[in-house]
Design a protein that fits this description.
Helix content: 40-55%
Shape: flat
Radius of gyration: 20 Å
Strand order of the largest sheet: 1-2-3-4
Number of strands: 4
Length: 176
C-alpha cells in the first residue's frame, strides 16, 4: 500500500490505543497503582483504530478502482477478535467456572497476605472456556485472567480450572 491514508478518527484511535497499551505495560511493571486495566482497553481501542483505518483505506481503494479483498479480510479478523473479547467479558461472569475462580480468589490467604484485603476483582479479556456435555453430564476446562486490586498492591493472575462429570469446577493452578 503505497498510498496509505489516515482519517482523523483512525489517527485518534490508533494513538489513544497505543498510549493506553504503553501506559498499561509501564503501570504493571513499575508498578503504578492507577488504571491497570488500560493495557486491555488499549488493545481493544488499537484494534478498533486499525479497523477504522483499514475501512477508510478500503473506501479510498474502491474509489480508485482497486481491489481490497485483503483489507476486508483484515477488518473481519479484527471485528471477530473484538466480538470474542466482548462475549468473554459479558458471558464469563455468569459461568460456574467464573464463580469457582472468584470464590477461590476471595478465600486465598496467600494472595490476601501479599496484596492486602481484596477491594476489587476484574475480569480481563483473555483466556478460554471449553465445556462439553453428553448423557453422563458436563465436563470442561477454563483459563481465566483477573486483575485483583488489594489494599496494598494490585496483581494480575491467571487461574486454570477443570470440571469432570458430576463434579464442581476445581481450581488446578494459579499463575501469580
Amino acid at each position: 500500500m503505497n498510498n496509505i491514508k489516515f482519517n482523523l478518527w483512525s489517527k485518534i484511535l490508533l494513538i489513544t490505543g497505543t498510549l493506553l497499551l504503553v501506559y498499561g505495560i509501564i503501570a504493571t511493571n513499575i508498578p503504578i497503582y492507577i488504571f491497570w486495566e488500560s493495557e486491555s482497553l488499549g488493545w481493544a481501542v488499537l484494534f478498533i483504530g486499525l479497523a477504522v483505518f483499514l475501512n477508510y483505506n478500503r473506501i479510498i481503494r474502491k474509489k480508485d478502482g482497486k481491489k481490497s479483498v485483503l483489507i476486508i479480510i483484515g477488518i473481519v479478523i479484527l471485528i471477530f477478535i473484538l466480538f470474542i473479547q466482548f462475549i468473554l467479558i459479558v458471558i464469563f461472569p455468569f459461568t460456574d467456572a467464573y464463580s469457582a475462580a472468584n470464590k477461590h480468589i476471595r478465600n486465598d490467604s496467600l494472595l490476601t497476605k501479599e496484596i492486602g484485603i481484596i477491594k476489587d476483582i476484574q475480569l480481563l479479556p483473555s483466556g478460554n472456556f471449553q465445556k462439553t456435555s453428553n448423557l453422563e453430564g458436563v465436563q470442561g476446562t477454563a483459563t481465566i485472567k483477573f486483575l485483583i486490586k488489594g489494599e496494598i498492591t494490585y496483581k494480575i493472575i491467571k487461574i486454570h480450572l477443570s470440571k469432570e462429570i458430576n463434579t464442581d469446577w476445581l481450581v488446578n493452578e494459579i499463575n501469580y
